[in-house]
Amino acid sequence: MGTLVTLTATANDTATFVGWSGACTGNGTCSVTLDAAQSVTATFVTRYSSVSAGHINACGVRNDGTVACWGGNTFVQDTPPTGTFTSVSAGDGYFCGVRTDGTVACWGNQNCPQVPVPAGKFVSVSADGDCYVYGVESDGAITCWGGNCYDTGTPPAGAFVSVSVSIGGNDYFACGVKTNETIACWGANEFGQATPPAGIFASVSVGGEHACGLSTSGTLDCWGSNIFGQATPPADTFTSVSAGDFFTCGVKIDGTIACWGYNTFGAATPPAGTFTSVSAGVEFACGLKTDGTITCWGQNTYGQGTPI
Q1: Cβ contacts of residue 175 below 8 Å, gap of 6+?
Q2: Which of 48, 92, 265, 278 has the fewest Cβ atoms surrounding its Cβ within 10 A?
Q3: Rounded distance, CA 53 to CA 187, Å?
Q4: Domains of the chain as residue ranges with CATH
């Protein structure tokens, strides 16, 4: 008669237990009678605090502050620097992130002049699809560096809490939320993308040639190009929004994700489940689930839809 052994899988702060395989199944405790050789495997997945989807890559900040990246690696953009970060922003073949000490680090496409980064402390950063980066300094001022800052014009004076720059398209522009909760935009305005609506907002996200703002009441306002319906949000209440190249996604108040706009590769068809945030890139998107894991959907030619 064999001995009954009970196994319990306990994840640390950077992982989530997703289940047993082998002699046990499910995600509860595992009880095995050792009357013969048995094999049991406990599977864990990494837990993240944020995610950013770009062109053919994505990066996530793990719960311990370290960064993991996946997708195309032509420019070594999937090899982030060591250290801990509070956030990461995906550009075209490169990434920039704010370290826990407030400094900024960028890596990836060596053909882009996004490095060296300016000195100083930052609260947020946004990398674009054409080698330039905007950052909000600790005093609220906006600084731009990289290849084509001049294409977006000059940011307005004043203090900001966040900034977002165009991820794709041919008309470069940027928007930011000011400390008085209004939105200011600047740069190309062919489709009205640099003319934001009035009102007070908690956040703003810039896509290809459109942008969307999350009002403090949870409703969405979008403006700019709407050729694919990317600037026509559903009449729901949201907790976050992210504008991709020609589509947009948002996390609704019940935690589910809604997407609208161009649906190539299924980028505007999100999976079921509950999420805390979403990041729309170029033809794909990634969402941070309530259990801290990341799910991506849409284009996956380069592995950008397969988080590690």
Answers
A1: 163, 164, 183, 184, 185, 186, 194, 196, 204, 206, 211, 213
A2: 265
A3: 23
A4: 3-45 (no CATH), 48-298 (2.130.10.30)
